[in-house]
Amino acid sequence: MANTLEDRLKQKRLEISLNEVTQVSNTSDNKGVFTSIETDENNRKLYYTKMFDSFHGFGIKKRKNDIFYISLRDLLDQDKKESFHLFSLKAGDKFLGMFYGFKRRKKPVGLPYIHEVTKENKTINIYKAYYVEFRFKTGSVFCLVNGIRLLIRKDRLETKYCQTLLEALIRLEKEIHEFYNQKLPYGGLITKWISKKLK
């Protein structure tokens, strides 16, 4: 009986701590940074952000060192930025690391661009949503970043945009692991992931 009550109390604490993740000070509008929140078969909460272009900034909040903020650039408007927070661990939770990957989308995201030769406005449909996952024992946050798809293309990897994004991800890995008092695997994570996936 006591064990069941203790389990329910732990679950309630978990729900409260995970709900804090969605209480984001959004810099652009009131829609929020997360497009969906799901529960997996192990009762873990999975948070998915909108698709963003790249990172704007991140780090530990100056006045609150138990909050790690991540600010991202909008996919279509580089001047528009939104952010969310990762919090320090609560009892019973554990940071399991950062992971990279992609999910296939049912509906594509249309990304407008100007053709280099003809100077015409065109749209490319994106069916794969590349993400950085912040995985915890109690749930995960999937941060969808469109620029990651370019990191696995040999013809694009050496561009200034890709090198800047790669440097940002290397710094993010280091700072997140320090924030959660975890040792970053030797050589980092993104470089190993790129070398496996490079086309």
UniProtKB/TrEMBL annotation:
Alphabetically ordered keywords of this record: Plasmid
Alphabetized InterPro entries for the sequence: DUF226_BOR_spp (IPR004180)
Pfam families: DUF226
Name of the protein: Partition protein
